[in-house]
Amino acid sequence: MPDGGPNPLSRAIGLLGDEWTLLLLRHALAGSTRYSDFNAQLPISNAVLTNRLDTMVCESLMERRVYQRNPVRSEYLLTVRGRSTWPLLVVIWAWERKWVPEHAYATPPMIHQVCGREMSPLYCCTACKEPVTAADLHTRWGPSGGWSRSVPEVTTRRRSDSRGGGKGPRFFYPDTMAVFGNRWSSAVVGAAFLGAHRFSDFQSLLGIPPSLLAERLASLCDRGILEQVEGEVRPAWKAYRLTGKGLGFFPVVAITVEWAQRWYTSPEGRVLDWTHAACGAPFIGTLACDRCRKPLTGSDIDLSTID
Questions:
Q1: In sequence order, which ranges of the chain are alpha helices (DSSP H)?
Q2: Which residues are bridge partners to 66 per DSSP?
Q3: Region entry Disordered: which residue ranges (predicted)?
Q4: pLDDT at 234 over 70
Q5: Is residue 192 assigned to a domain?
């Protein structure tokens, strides 16, 4: 990636902050490979499906392989980069299951194939194996970091709708997309995790127009991700803080950052550097089963249960 432009985090959120891309990844991780498979499983138009598959090939999430010559037909196989998105899908599922129980459709339990029990993933420090939250980490911008470069330039969020045909609603989770699928909402939540509270804080850090900022803050409050509270210095000057639901979104944010820094390297260096305060080690996250505490791998989880 060139110096001075959008950084790895901007690029990753621009790519993964799209519900069709995430849905295609979910089905691909569960074993789907052919255009007809995706078309049958998702209420997606041919034009959108073709566009997303082309994008995923261009971004090296998938590779296209011809399996029939006359007529020419291709299958779409996940690359190592594409397969490495499984932790993101797992923590999104876990967050929605815990914090958005009112969805009309069921969010089924996930079984850890190693211990055989229903589980939720713990986001842990690789060095000391202890679970972490945002408050447990010291965070600083790296050489390619900064707010202006981390806001995604691409806005591909698409609202779910049904095209009929008797298919069940296989949409990605709307509360996740309220944060992850909007460039400014994701930036506002990121700023809140790094300590922004006041309207003026968000505006000065992000360079967002006031009317748009007010709209994003209101939307995040409506979703229960932020809440408005009295200002510490002047109670009349309202502030915003992450709720329990908002704080619980941290693994989604952190895993996206780690994935971005793994696959979209910048010659300038990293976007963010974290230190785990408790053990003092540079922080690298890992997922573990909350029942047996063994580290999770993609093969330990049946992603076909994630709707």
A1: 8-16, 19-29, 35-41, 46-58, 80-83, 86-99, 147-150, 174-180, 183-193, 199-206, 210-222, 244-247, 250-263
A2: 74
A3: 148-167
A4: no
A5: no
